[in-house]
Amino acid sequence: MNISPKEARVYTLYQVGALFAFAKAQKTPLQHVKLHGSFYNQAAYDLKLALEVLKGIRDFDPHLIVLAPSLSPMAKLGQDMGLKIAEEVFADRHYLDDGRLVPRDHPKAFVSDLNEALMRVVCMAKERKVQTISGKSIDIVADSICVHGDNPQAVWLAMQIREVLLKNGVAIKPLGEFIRGTH
After folding, report:
1. Which of 40, 95, 148, 164 has the highest Cβ tally under 10 A?
2. Which residues contact 50 (CB under 8 A, 6 or more apart)?
3. What are the two backbone dihedrals, phi and then psi, of residue 17, each rounded to the nearest 5 degrees?
4. Where do the domains of the chain lie?
């Protein structure tokens, strides 16, 4: 969908409000917000969309943690706005040299070797680096690790990621315990 920045702000505010209502009905606090799919990727790299999405979240609750792709313009903008930003990495996707994900229609978009995915996650978490599809090593921040639910091995991979991180001395904590903002 092509939407205007104003529409992005309104949609974000509307959907976060609806999510809050469902969470409240279940007596569960709302801790963080993550956009989904194509909109997540589009807003992460389009500063006009990112600004309006972040304003919508801030207007609803400036204490919510916002997930954004590691080192993306959206993550930087959110930090500059004083929001709590959790930078996210992707266990089962390859990266381009500019830090973006390899497009899904590329034959090497997905990390097919699950052991490779585990080694990459440990490197992202401990060394703050990831190897791109071209072989270059780039910086990355791994506050959160995404495993795509459409990966048939997603649940197994998530369990293996937890185990390998713990074995390698990486603490696993709720976002609210370590993500800080200025609000």
Report:
1. 95
2. 43, 44, 73, 74, 77, 78
3. -60, -45
4. 5-177
pLDDT tens digits for range 128-152:
999 999 999 999 999 999 998 777 8
CATH class of 5-177: alpha beta
Q: pTM score, two decimals?
A: 0.92
What tokens were used for 17?
A: 């409000």
CA pair distance 14, 47, nearest whole angstrom: 20
Pair of tokens at residue 155: 């649940």
Distances (CA, A) of 98 to 123, 132, 138, 150, 175: 18, 9, 8, 25, 26
* Among candidate residues 96, 102, 72, 67, the one with its CA nearest the CA of residue 83: 67
Phi, psi of 32 (to 5 degrees): -145, 165
Long-range contacts of 168-175 (CB under 8 A, 24+ apart): 168/122, 168/125, 168/126, 169/126, 170/122, 170/125, 170/126, 174/31, 175/31, 175/32, 175/65, 175/86, 175/143, 175/144
Which residues are CB-contacts of 182 (< 8 A; sequence separation ≥ 6)? 82
Q: What is the pLDDT of residues 82-120, one digit of tens each?
A: 999 999 999 999 999 999 999 999 999 999 898 999 999
**32-33 and 144-146 beta bridge pairing:** unpaired
